[in-house]
Design a protein that fits this description.
The chain is an alpha/beta fold. The protein has helices spanning 5-14, 30-41, 61-64, 87-95, 99-109, 144-166, 196-212, 225-234, 266-279, 286-302, 316-327, 341-356, and strands at 19-23, 56-59, 67-70, 80-83, 114-118, 124-130, 136-137, 184-188, 217-222, 238-245, 251-256. Strand 5 and strand 6 form a beta hairpin. Helix 5 crosses helix 6 (144-166) and helix 9 (266-279) runs antiparallel to helix 10.
Length: 363
């Protein structure tokens, strides 16, 4: 029997663990769950005065909405990322002076040639990049992935300062009292567009910070198996879950032991999702992404250098192109969820190819 996201948020609240790790595919409801959790821990009541005690902080897509672009449409020169200031950004930037640490972390995960510049009011950021012959190119617009990384670095610097502040045993000796009632940190997918090396570094840094934090509980959700695995190995006193959505709109939160390469059985879960779609004749575009993920995980396990090495030999180039094109759709007409009948048959064939060639054995 499925549950509502509110019930799942209650399960997370009641768990007696310092860390809760949640794996779920994109689109399942991780961001909505973070909102439900926030409302559960610190609900808004319009009939009462606002409770100024901060009990939960969360990082998700809504956090990124505090940052938005002014593209200078008239001159197309002075492009800048605007910040919608709040108490948190003011504290970490104005009071704590974390600008330098934010820039350092951002360049660590992206490029040391790409530099953010905060204005004196800390409500605008411009970017420059080193070109050839020591040339500096100013007022560039960074990618969406780089933008997400910058927002994470701001949040991470905030979190770092909060942990250091709360680790001071005597409340009267802390620099601020505004986080004295903080109980939970909910982090949803801070790994957008990072390569594997930087993703691992980010996960290790977050794991170290979690271990340092005294008296706080963390909920971390992700769609990335590698990020999940690193955090699994970097943190203690934890419980791990797999979040999935049912056809009736309810959700399941299954507890899983071990990382995604062990009893988490990520590849078995992918098999199950694709097989159910085939059996119910409900193959959608995103199932090609899951099929590619399954091929990648299988190739890695078996020691093949490329996942495409597992494709049928007779049309390997053709099938490689089909999966690449269908699992990385970017044009508007490609986002239609219903694939063509030929595409559905291709997915069935390539899925059966994995199973029929005994790449998997039943456990």
């Amino acid at each position: 029997m499925g549950q509502s996201l509110k019930k799942i948020a209650e399960t997370l609240r009641d768990a007696d663990k310092k860390v809760q790790l949640i794996y779920a595919f994109n689109g399942v409801g991780k961001t909505r769950l973070s909102r439900e959790f926030k409302e559960l821990i610190s609900p808004k009541n319009p009939d009462e005065e606002e409770d100024t005690k901060i009990k939960v902080l969360y990082y998700n897509a809504f956090t990124e909405d505090l940052f938005y672009w002014d593209n200078d449409l008239n001159e197309d020169k002075n492009r800048k990322l605007q910040i919608q200031p709040n108490g948190f950004t003011d504290w970490v930037l104005r009071e704590q002076g974390q600008e330098r640490n934010i820039v350092t972390n951002f360049q660590r995960y992206t490029s040391n040639k790409l530099t953010p510049h905060f204005n004196e009011s800390y409500n605008e950021i411009t970017f420059s990049i080193e070109g050839g012959n020591e040339e500096i190119i100013d007022n560039i617009k960074i990618s969406k992935g780089e933008e997400s990384c910058l927002v994470w670095c701001v949040f991470y610097s905030l979190l770092n300062q909060i942990v250091a502040n709360l680790n001071i045993a005597e409340p009267d000796e802390r620099e601020t009292s505004q986080f004295n009632d903080l109980q939970y940190i909910f982090i949803d997918d801070p790994v957008s567009s990072l390569d594997e090396n930087h993703l691992i570094e980010l996960a290790v840094n977050l794991g170290d910070l979690i271990k340092e934090a005294s008296g706080l509980r963390f909920v971390v959700s992700t769609h990335n198996p590698l990020f999940f695995n690193v955090l699994f190995n970097e943190t203690g006193n934890k419980v791990c879950y797999l979040l999935s959505k049912n056809e009736d709109g309810t959700y399941d939160l299954q507890e899983k032991k071990g990382d995604s390469n062990k009893s988490f059985s990520y590849h078995h879960y992918l098999k199950q999702i694709i097989q159910e779609a085939i059996d119910s004749n409900n193959v959608q575009k995103y199932h090609f992404m899951l099929l590619r993920n399954l091929y990648e995980k299988t190739a890695n396990f078996l020691g093949y250098p490329q996942w495409s090495d597992l494709l049928p030999d007779d049309k390997k180039t053709y099938y490689n192109r089909i999966i690449q094109f269908t699992s990385h759709s970017t044009l508007s007409y490609e986002t239609i969820p219903e694939p063509t009948e030929q595409e559905k048959q291709t997915l069935k064939l390539l899925f059966a190819h994995l199973i029929d060639n005994n790449y998997y054995t039943e456990e």
